[in-house]
Design goal:
alpha/beta, Rossmann fold, Dihydrodipicolinate Reductase, domain 2, 2 domains, nine-stranded mixed beta sheet, six-stranded parallel beta sheet, 19 strands, about 30% helix
């Protein structure tokens, strides 16, 4: 097998820049081409990153492409990933992987038939901060995790995104758009979810864009924008998950997990780094010493400071796992179970009933310091 697998990207919107700019950090992958239904967008990204701009059909037939990254809007994730698999190529999708269990199981069947891999974002749970929490939990220092809280609340994407329409349509909303970061991290830390219950509301039926170039334009809201959920995990833990795009400000921590022997304060799962704090029984809260994890090292400007951003780590891990014949961490099973949880939350919000999960999964392998370093390209 080649030292590096050729990677193509379908979808050249905002998120594509992160993939193209960060891919050189990792070994095992080589960005070669990009495509978009808007060929001008593909040509612009190709020029920016010295790639080939191709039509979607050309990319699917390109013999130099082994893996295609699906960066299209959520509503077409399934159709695009299906086309990639049917073309005989591995696929790695942005979140959410699909919008229904049926779609995910169909993709799984197609992949297994051809011996192909499916991977999916988010890969932020591979970040140094979240892997430090994983090590803390796995070490037994917190005892069994029994409960916790998660809060991801703001006032929507219409204030910064140039085209925020799809965020407020079925397939998006705060649960399916931001929820994957939180739900996936909970699964990798605690394990699979057994059942969920939720309340969901849509306070505003339309939003006014305040970002350029469409400031002042009104867009419809056709999916719940405030959802309060309860997740019961297979290990017995009960976690509260509050998601909203109707909140201007709040004082809640992104994630807190309560164990039999202590509490851990987890930084925002939307990012790779951050400060981890914990308590040892009744002792005062303390900040953990810095962990020498490469995916926790700040490497990119964000606002007024630096942050750690290692997007494409999951893609690189999948490519290397293919070569090594081992499971990859951002797996189809993990992504599908997260979709099961999130769509279950939305169904519960609609019906007012508990919703049992249809799927389960194993926790992905931890990514310690040594394994993380092994994903990085050697510095020249």
């Amino acid at each position: 097998m080649a030292d590096k697998l050729g990677v193509g990207v379908i979808g050249c919107g905002n998120i594509s820049k992160a993939y193209f700019s960060l891919a050189p950090l990792f070994r095992g992958i080589k960005m070669r081409a990009c495509a978009d239904i808007n060929l001008d967008a593909a040509k612009a990204r190709a020029k920016e990153f010295k790639l080939r701009a191709e039509t979607v059909d050309e990319l699917l037939k390109d013999d130099e492409i082994d893996i295609i990254v699906n960066l299209t809007i959520p509503a077409v994730h399934y159709e695009v990933s299906k086309a990639v698999l049917d073309a005989g190529k591995h696929v790695y999708s942005e979140k959410p992987f699909v919008l229904s269990i049926e779609e995910g199981l169909d993709l799984k069947k197609r992949a297994e038939k051809k011996g192909l891999r499916i991977g999916s974002a988010p890969d932020t749970f591979l970040g140094g901060a979240h892997q430090l929490v994983r090590e803390l939990i796995d070490s037994g220092k917190l005892g069994k995790i029994t409960s916790g809280t998660c809060h991801v609340m703001g006032h929507g994407m219409e204030h910064w995104h140039p085209n925020p329409d799809f965020f407020f349509q079925p397939g998006a909303g705060p649960v399916l758009d931001i929820g994957p970061y939180y739900v996936t991290n909970l699964i990798q830390l605690i394990g699979p979810v057994k059942q969920v219950a939720a309340f969901a509301t849509t306070p505003a039926k339309e939003r006014t864009i305040s970002s350029q170039p469409r400031a002042g334009e009104k867009i419809p809201v056709n999916t719940p924008t405030t959802i309060h959920a309860l997740l019961e995990f297979a290990n017995g833990a009960v976690i509260t998950l509050n998601t909203s795009w109707d909140v201007w400000s709040h004082g809640h921590a992104p994630m807190e997990l309560y164990g039999e022997a202590g509490t851990v304060f987890v930084p925002d799962p939307n990012f790779f780094g951050g400060e981890v704090r914990f308590t040892d029984s009744a002792k005062p809260v303390k900040k953990l010493p810095k962990w020498n994890h490469p995916f926790g090292v700040p490497n990119e400007m964000h606002g007024q400071g630096m942050m750690a951003n290692y997007r494409t780590a999951g893609l690189a891990d999948m490519a290397i796992a293919i070569a090594e014949g081992r499971p990859h961490r951002c797996s189809m099973e993990l992504a599908l179970h997260a979709v099961d949880v999130m769509t279950g939350i939305l169904r519960s919000g609609e019906s007012g009933k508990y919703v049992a999960m249809q799927t389960s999964c194993e926790r992905p392998a931890a990514l310690g310091v040594k394994d993380a370093k092994a994903l990085l390209a050697k510095k020249k």
